Amino acid sequence: MAVVPSPHWAAGGAGGTAPHGRQAAYRSGDASPSAQGEQMIERKERKPYWRHTKWQMLTSVLPFLVALLVLPLYADQLNSRRFLGFPLGYFLACHGLVLIAVVTTFAYINRQDAIDHWHGAHEDL
Amino acid sequence: MSHRQGISPVNAMVGVYFGIFAACLAAGVVLLLIFEQLGVTDASLKTAMVAISVILFATIGAGAYTGRVREFLLSGRRVPAVYNGVALAVVALGAAGTTGIAGALFLAGFDMLCIGVGIVAGLSVSVMLLAPYLRKFGAPTIPSYLGQRFDSGPLRLLAATVCVLPLMLLAIAEIKIGLMSVMWLLPLPPEAAGGLIGLVLALTILPGGVRSLSWSGAAQAMAVLIAILLPAAIAAVMQTNLPFGQFSHGPIIRAVARLETAQDVPIPVASLLALDIPGSGLQPIVGRFSTTFGSIGQLAYVLLTLSVLVGTAGSPALLSRAVTTPSVYDTRKSIGWAVAIVGVLLLTFSSVAIFERDILVGSFVGQSAADPPAALRRLMDIGLAALDGQGGRLNANSILFDRDGMLVALPVMMGMPLAVVNLVAAGIMAAALTGAATSLTQLGVMLGEDVAAGPSNAAASDRMRVTVCRLAIVGAIAVAGVGAVATNGDPLVLMLYAILISGSTIFPVLLLSIWWKRLTVAGAIACLITGLFTTLAVLLADLASLGIPALLAPVIALPAALVAAGIASYLTPAPGRHILEMVRDLRIPGGETIYDREMRQARQRGQRSR
To answer: Is the ipTM of this complex over 0.85?
Structure first.
């Protein structure tokens, strides 16, 4: 049941071991209703969860935006080169940005899912 | 676990149903292809194509009938990620974007990529910043999310007022393209075509609200994908010998560039902030295809990408559909699918545009204007092209093309059978129907839930709430239909206006409401009002030609809205414990949605006080 993600992104946080609250929740086989209601996640896990989520968001959005803003500006100079038969500038501004968007999005979805599992915040449906 | 009781699992038969739908559609198209060879008239083939698609969509819409509020407003939160993603992708582009971007790419080349890339990037940013958190909150509309998140009725009304603008503009833009495709397929005057579209919209969304919308929308989106990808693949085989034109049209771009140089096609030069998008109707090409920054300046290109990005990410029509998935993870996944599909469509538009350019510079230019080539004559016969000036030899600028017709023009130019041409036209009609239906359903639900019923709707019965929403949807369809028939306007520009309004008002307030706990009611109201009025100011400045193009409004309005929200929040007392607890809860997936919990508690309070 417990999915342990590779801890490389968690280096600054939990230090590679699953947080206690989550382990305890798994051991008792009762990950959800706490005294306050139907919170799936332990209350003290919420801060580290949000810290990881924030970093994950920033490291996904910022490089993506930079690529989006910078690539087209050099399209003119790059157009004299050739890639797969395309003028390189055109290829990067069209196919390149689409590929970057798709890869960034799916990488983000995967990493965020790993973060959810790590902190016990995932939904079992 | 009490919060699980209301959740019905995803229907295991969904794949079978959509298999049946796809088989019916394919069988219909093949049947028409056979009838065409047997000599059935064009008019009956076109009528049959419309009838097949409309009957299929309406059957699905009516089959999803429901009288339960949870189904009517949220589709029971059980639309699987893939189906939702396909529908989201088609709605994000919309018929206006589909035809507009493909045509603009053909006419102006490289510069128009920024609109499509902005939409892809907007969906991508929406996964990271907004949509999953709105799914956790679980509210059916953006105003009801804001109203509950800040516990404020006035904010809810204000947000509903602001949301009406982009939703109405989008619906009108989509219905305009729908009119165009219906009138292309059936010999009807605009009023009758508008009535037909309104009727089909009512049939597909009234029975089950968002539930009907989800399923008929997914079917329409599949029809759109087939209608765009199939002719593009046939054209790619004819031109490059490979079926994946998306990745193999590179050599043609360079061949076209050589021909354009030989024919002295002009190279326009745009100033840094120039922003000139080819208008609807018959237009000559603007310049060479792969030359950069001829009609959109370098700075304007980047800023327009950003404006479309924030507008797509904050689009109320998209966000309301993103919350109908079974879980937060499925919301992320469904938008991920949408990113991939819009990306493929954008690459397809690029390949379609260059195939058409190739035919233009390769086989039209240089021919006699008195005796135009057969492909050009076919285009002129159906009104998708015209000649500018008389006599002499054709050159690249003397042929005018209909911007919104360039997707239909591809099979016509390539001499494909009429069944394929009709399939594309029916696909554009389906895109218009699903785009308009999404905006109008959201508009109706918003008017019914947020404006008419207001905060007291926890006490209202299911039947009452559903009836109010149905009436509001009928009203919205009527207003948008009349608006689309009676007004003039470029659908692509209308869509971009909708995008810029949501980007400068709704996007900042949603962003802050999730990522900044200190935001207060006053801050949110200031954010919406500042965003809206700054946008209006930029529009007025553009009318007075004061330098900055109207389409770049979010570049000014978004920072202004963020600053206003910050100042107003710090001037008012910090939010109370209940609100802070709600924000912390909102940020973490799992458990009962906050909307359901608040509604349940409101109902319990109502029972106790009775």
So the answer is: yes
